[in-house]
Amino acid sequence: MLRCVCEAAALLERAEGLCSPLLLSDVGCGAALALAAMDCAAMNIFVNTGTLRGDPESDSYEEEAGRLLGEYRPRTEALSASVLRRLQGL
User: Fold this and answer.
1) Is the model's pLDDT at 90 over the cut of 80?
2) Is residue 90 classed as helix, strand or coil in its secondary structure?
3) CA atoms of 38 and 65, how far apart (whole Å)
4) How far apart are CA 15 and CA 86, in angstroms?
5) Taking 80 as the threshold, does the pLDDT of residue 7 lie above it?
6) Tens-digit pLDDT profile for residues 8-18
7) What's this model's pTM, rounded to 2 decimal places?
8) In degrees, to the nearest 5, what angle opens at C-alpha 65 toward C-alphas 6 and 38?
9) Residue 80: how many CB atoms within 10 A of its CB?
10) Residue 80: its pLDDT value, please?
11) Residue 53: what pLDDT?
12) Following DSSP, what letter does each residue of 12-74 receive, concatenated?
């Protein structure tokens, strides 16, 4: 799920510059929802891997989740904030 949400967030970034002004709020809403979905997916990963510390597969999932969050969460947060500022005319 986390991978899919990150892919969607990347598509939303592209859409911001290409979409009609009337669809801009949809991009912002999508970014806000993607942030929540990232957090939820990561929590589900970490609650399950937390009981398997030291297991190579579990550690791999945690590492990937941390990397994806580190890369995509700030970008998606910035996108949401950017759209809100644009809609407010700032």
Assistant:
1) no
2) coil
3) 9
4) 14
5) yes
6) 999 999 999 89
7) 0.89
8) 45
9) 21
10) 97
11) 85
12) HHHHHHHS-GGGHHHHHHHHHHHHHHHHHHHHHHHHHHGGGTT-HHHHHHHHHHHHHHHHHHH
- Residue written as token pair 């937390």: 50
Residue 9, Cα to own-chain centre: how many angstroms? 5
Q: How far is CA 42 from CA 27, 48, 68, 89, in A?
A: 22, 10, 9, 34
Q: Which two tokens stand for residue 42?
A: 């990561």
Query: Degrees (nearest 5) of the Cα angle 90, 71, 74?
Result: 25
**Residue 52 structure tokens:** 């398997």
Q: For residue 1, what are the contacts with CB-CB under 8 A and spacing of at least 6?
A: 37, 41, 44
